[in-house]
Write a structure and sequence with these properties.
The protein has 72 residues and is α+β, with helices and mostly antiparallel strands. It has one helix at 29-39, and strands at 4-12, 19-26, 45-54, 57-65.
Length: 72
């Protein structure tokens, strides 16, 4: 089994405390990078859930990030 997962983006709405959430699946690391480059700019919170096999068992790694931007 290869790497796959979900990119979760939470965008702040105009009313305080309200957010719009997107859950975007990816099936390899290139897709994750492409999603981040095209969709994640300006998101209030980014969460990446990566699922893969380790030690013969399916494992999920969850990474939480704050604001997202590009290194220029």
């Amino acid at each position: 089994m290869g790497t796959k997962g979900t990119l979760v983006l939470r965008h702040a709405l105009e009313r305080p405390g309200e957010v719009r959430e997107e859950q975007l699946p990816f099936f390899d690391l290139q897709e994750l990078l492409d999603l981040c480059a095209s969709r994640a700019q300006g998101a209030a919170l980014i969460q990446v859930r990566v699922t893969g096999e380790a030690s013969g068992r399916q494992q999920t790694l969850v990474l939480d990030f704050g604001r997202f931007g590009r290194a220029e």
